[in-house]
Amino acid sequence: MAFHLRREIDITKRKILEISTAVEKNVTDAVHALEKRDIQLARNVIEYDKEIDRMEVDLEEECLKILALHQPVAIDLRYIVAILKINNDLERIADLAVNVAQSAIVLAQQNEIRIPEHIRDMADITVQMIRQALDSLLNMDADAAQHVMDTDDDVDRLHKRTFDFVESGIREDPDRTAELIRLLGISRSFERMADHATNIAEDVIYMLTGEIVRHGPPPED
To answer: 109: closest CA among 43, 157, 60?
Structure first.
């Protein structure tokens, strides 16, 4: 039984690495499509999301099979539970990359629209957070996972800046409302990606330590 469980767990490790690599690539391509006004690259992101969905379902089925057949306990159980949650977060990040790609197509077909620098910064930080969260999973590194969690506040601040930018822009030039709302949606997608990267980091810490950190430290007496 132990040998078969180890083999099945090794399969899930390979599968989570595959979907992680695919999701990171699609997010990076979505960012490049936005920055370069590359409609074909954006369409590639949208199309490849179908493959990511397939990988997500495949990994979920593998994890459920392990739970049903082997009834793992202790660290093996924590691992499978964490992988199920991380798998879901990766799929949601991929969906958000599609949102960015769809917006990139719309903006590329309009007159030259400048992407504000702080949204570019958000994109860079978010991609780095996703990469570091996946590295923390691959290397089983709780310190790296904690760094991802600490970085989330930076993305939240930039998203707030985008909200203020859009609000003032609509007041100054109502004719740009549709364009500005589109930029706000892009910012929101990056902010949510960062939240999912944070979720992954929290699950890595849970996997390694058994500690649930998503709600912060317990209140002091």
So the answer is: 43
Pair 203, 213: CB distance under 8 Å: no
35: helix, strand or coil? helix
Predicted TM-score (pTM) of this structure: 0.90
CATH code of the domain occupying 2-209: 1.20.58.220
Alpha-carbon distances of 43 from 63, 130, 139, 180, 190, rounded to whole Å: 31, 22, 33, 22, 19
Q: Which residue has the tokens 């949650």?
A: 85
Its sign, for the CA torsion 103, 195, 147, 116, is positive
Q: How confident is the model over 101-112, as pLDDT tens digits?
A: 999 999 998 866
Residues with Cβ within 8 Å of residue 180, at least 6 apart in sequence: 165, 166, 169, 170
